[in-house]
Amino acid sequence: MQATAEILENNRAKLSIKVDAQDFGSSIDQAIEQAAKTVRIPGFRPGRVPKQLVEARIGRAAIREEVIRESLPEFIRDAVIQTGVDAIATQTVDVISPDDAPNFEVDVVVETRPRVSIAGYQGLSVKIESPIPTQEEIDREIDKLRNQFAKLSQVDRPSKVGDSVTMNIKASRNDEVLENYCIDDYVSEVGSKMLFEQLDDLMVGVKPGDIVKVNSTVPGEEQEVTFEVLVKQVDEKILPDPTDEWVASASEFDKFEDLKSDIFEKLSKAKADFAIEEFRRGAAQALCELVTDEIPKSLISQEIQTRLHDFQHRLDAQKIPLGLYLQATGQSEESFISTITSVAHETVRLDLALRALSQAEGIEVTDADVDSHLGKLAESAGETLDAARENLEKGGLMEGFRFEIKKAKSLEWLEDNVRVLDQDGKPVTLRVQRGDDEVVVGSKAQ
């Protein structure tokens, strides 16, 4: 097969494809042989019908048409690979060889992937939450531990957030008591949201003997329910002093300073992990925001279909109907599709932005890169490197595989060159893991 490409306006290209008489005739002969295995003609057993009779019965023109219909996607795929055209969708197909021609010629107009502008990508910056724990955060963690060993002490003052209130709750509707919602000596911490929000808010500033009323809806009841609450007792929490003695009895440490150091280290690790994820999302988003070009609908449609297919496949594997999933997650079909569409838009936009970045910075994929990634793929699949390579090449997936590597390298470039700032605009450096290595990001552009 021979193919040439002519670049047209508006992100299009014309592929002129020619399959010579020998190859095309071979395809027709194979189609006749296949039809001979299934066609039924009186006087002949299935699979024993002569090819000449099959051709006469079906008609060579009809067989030719079927071969074209079946083979055209493969012809186009091979032409795209041969010409290097970055096609994303087929627009028109024009067969130009006569019906009785021994060869096959066709002109195919394809939509090509646009090259978008990412002007200003060299000066991107991302703001993240500082990965360094504050004293307030450390104190908050210490207080969580102190709370576990707190004692309650009755007070006569009005309640405040953090106090415990003992109450009797009476529920009614139209003067009829609803026993299912009545409870005596119920204890709730003010501000904990253990009660429904309206009642929890009213518990601030109450004292023993107060009666509080509020109307609210409850699950399983269509009409509002009136809640009458009698405040019986207010207790404040008495937290233990953070002494070495208390630390030794409440933790694995002997000294308060050792406990603080451990909390600092754990918070630092958790905040650093969060900061890295926040940074990566922010860097990708910042790059995407530079793309103002119109995104082809065909790319978005393909991404939506891919995501829907993958999601449905996961549901099928768990034997969960889509309707049941939507009901369980509280989504309508419209909101579900809307979310998928929004994610597809951003995915395509980032893909185009990374392609533009790799071109602008001359990011290339070497054979060593391919072998390294392919080796990992082969190992996970339990096959040899050569077998993995052959599978990708047979399926026409090698170019896509190479771009995924290029995309990863482009993301690494982005991480290395974007400025990282905290919320106050101060420079931040982060350590990120890449394979077996740890690298510092956010420092090169400071």
Q: What can you see in these coordinates?
A:
The chain has 446 residues and is of the alpha+beta class. The chain folds into three domains: 2-112, Trigger factor ribosome-binding domain (Alpha-Beta Plaits, 2-Layer Sandwich); 151-238, Transcription elongation factor, GreA/GreB, C-terminal domain (Chitinase A, domain 3, Roll); 256-292 and 339-441, Trigger factor, domain 2 (Orthogonal Bundle), CATH 1.10.3120. Helices cover 47% and strands 21% of the residues. The chain is built from 13 helices and 14 strands. The protein has helices spanning 21-36, 51-58, 60-83, 135-148, 197-202, 244-250, 256-288, 297-317, 322-329, 333-360, 367-381, 385-394, 398-417; strands at 2-8, 12-19, 87-95, 104-112, 125-127, 151-155, 164-173, 176-177, 183-189, 211-216, 225-238, 419-421, 430-434, 437-441. Strands 6, 7, 8, 9, 10 and 11 form a six-stranded antiparallel sheet that branches. The protein has a four-stranded antiparallel sheet with strand order 1-2-4-3. A two-stranded parallel sheet has the order 5-12. α10 (333-360) packs across α13 and α11 (367-381) packs across α12 (385-394). The chain is elongated.
